[in-house]
Specification:
By secondary structure, this protein is an alpha/beta fold. The protein is built from 12 helices and 4 strands. The chain has helices at residues 25-32, 47-51, 65-75, 88-110, 115-135, 140-143, 146-155, 162-171, 176-179, 186-201, 206-215, 221-229; strands at 9-12, 37-42, 56-62, 80-85. The protein has a 4-stranded mixed β-sheet with strand order 1-2-3-4, sandwiched between helices. Helix 1 links the parallel strand 1 (9-12) and strand 2. The longest helix has 23 residues, at 88-110.
Length: 237
């Protein structure tokens, strides 16, 4: 299909939540470019892998299914597989939340807490992501897919991730500002906004809240870990 000049698509590739307004990326597009067709592109992909032509699969979401399909076909190539969706909010939430959780995973690695702790962190982090997504009407299939679980697994397990690397530095004792090492880690800016939205919606996100507290220097890394480990035992959800 073709787009008219008044409904030109604008695809957000950034993953996050605006701090001041708590707006998602497509909301910002709608506010600033009223006649645009907002879309979001997210999923487990490192820029270097994509640039090298290595096989990658991502999700592109737009509200109109025809728009989503047309955009996916326009930018997809055999090595860059683009799946389309109409679950805009679900794709946005997966991309935003996983960056915060990746910082937590990096802290676990930096503190050398072991593979078991890393697996537990990623699993319970996904539970937080799923609860948050449900509060905003995200589809479970989206959160279990490339833009949710897929991106979380990648970002929580690779030093190529700037958020994970920042967490490693925090776990090794670096101060938040120094831990970034001059690189943009989107989770640093998303953490406080994510927690604020979670509190507004009554969603419990202890791992994300701990990351936000460490970044704001309200808790040390050791105190944050201790607080998480001392949480009451409960049924798994």
């Amino acid at each position: 299909m073709s787009f008219r000049h008044i409904d030109t698509p604008v695809i957000a590739a950034a993953k996050g939540i605006e701090q001041q307004t708590l707006a998602f990326m497509t909301d910002i597009i709608t506010d600033t470019v009223p006649h645009a067709v907002p879309a979001i592109l997210s999923g487990p992909s490192f820029a270097l892998d994509v640039a090298r032509g290595l096989p990658t699969a991502v999700t592109l979401a737009a509200q109109d299914p025809a728009h989503a399909q047309a955009l996916a076909q326009a930018i997809g190539v055999p090595a860059f597989r683009v799946y389309h969706s109409t679950d805009v909010r679900g794709v946005e939430i997966g991309g935003a939340a996983k960056n915060v959780l990746a910082i937590a995973a990096g802290i676990v690695a930096g503190k050398r807490l072991g593979a078991s702790a890393a697996a537990a962190l990623t699993t319970r982090g996904f539970a937080e992501l799923a609860r948050f997504g449900a509060a905003f009407g995200a589809r479970p299939a989206t959160l279990m897919g490339l833009a949710g679980l897929g991106d979380l697994i990648l970002t929580c397990s690779s030093a190529q991730s700037r958020n994970f690397s920042l967490g490693v530095a925090l776990g090794q004792g670096a101060e938040p500002q120094a831990a970034a090492a001059g690189k943009l880690a989107e989770g640093v800016f998303t953490a406080s906004a994510l927690v604020a939205l979670a509190q507004r919606e009554g969603v419990e996100m202890p791992i994300s809240a701990a990351v936000a507290a460490v970044l704001a220097r309200k808790l040390t890394v050791d105190a944050a870990i201790e607080a998480l480990l001392m949480r009451p035992f409960r049924a798994e959800e």
